[in-house]
Write the structure tokens for this entry.
Amino acid sequence: MTVPGIDHPRLVAWMARNVPDAGEPLSVSLISGGRSNLTYLVEAAERRLVLRRPPLGHVLPTAHDMRREWRVISALAPTPVPVPEPVAFCPDEDVIGAPFYLMGYVPGDAVRTRDQLGDPAPEQTRRLSERLAEVLAAIHAVDYREVGLGDFGRPAGYLARQLDRWCQQWERSKTEDRPDYYRLVERLRERLPAEASGTLVHGDYRLDNTLVRREDLEIMAVVDWEMSTLGDPLTDLGLTLTYWADRGDEERASIPVSGDVTATPGFLNAAEFANYYTKVSGREISDLGFYVAFGNFKLAVIVEGIHARFRQGKTVGEGFDRIGGAVPTLISRAHRMLDQH
């Protein structure tokens, strides 16, 4: 069977040379749900592996960098941050058409919806949301110089560069002009917070970028490190809260990104999650409204890029036909956060 994005014979030959202990890859299947980099389950003769590669089209400059993901999970493997086992990296685009890497299979699920979670007790879901905050705090507590990531980014000027970078991404991806977007950019630029001490940041931290073991709702690994760098840790918190679906927030429920799992009874709400992160990280939170607005801005740009790929016919999976409608909603929510805080 042909699998989009995989040249099976060439992958077999490459693995024989570079991962001989895994045995021959007997089958490769797309793991559903990826809206950016593509993730595949590789059933090899001796073990299960996971393969990550960039999307099939409309790849923006600096985005979908496989070497970056590979480097950060390799650096974090010996730390308290749970990540998959790094197995092998392939920079040669001739093998499957793009750089890729292999990591160990982790027994867990990327949970996006209340239905996927099943019917756990409220104290279990509360603990899961607390663990999500604790793992985020652990990421931000990593001594990035000690693990070899001292040159992984430039914390100084991070927020200003991020704003410029995402504006550039918007211009490359936009499917129509939106005056409210440009007004938002100006408001964010005028309100940039003072420089914060830099940490490792994930760049897209949310529950469905972790793998959760169903039996006890433990977070087994953080995945999808393609946007990681060194910068302001509160941008991670702001984006996590952007994804957060509080019970009763019907507008947020209409955005088809990241699901409704955090609306499950027992989960901390967004404000409680922010307070718990403050407690476990020991980090002062100032101007949280800016960081949540910035998260909505960033997610609007990401969604616009996904929508552009959908219009080009270069997405793999389902649900992309509705995603473009989330862009104006996210921009509106960002304006509202700046108005209210």
Q: What stands out?
A: Residues 58-63 have pLDDT under 50 and may be disordered. The two ends are 53 Å apart (CA to CA).
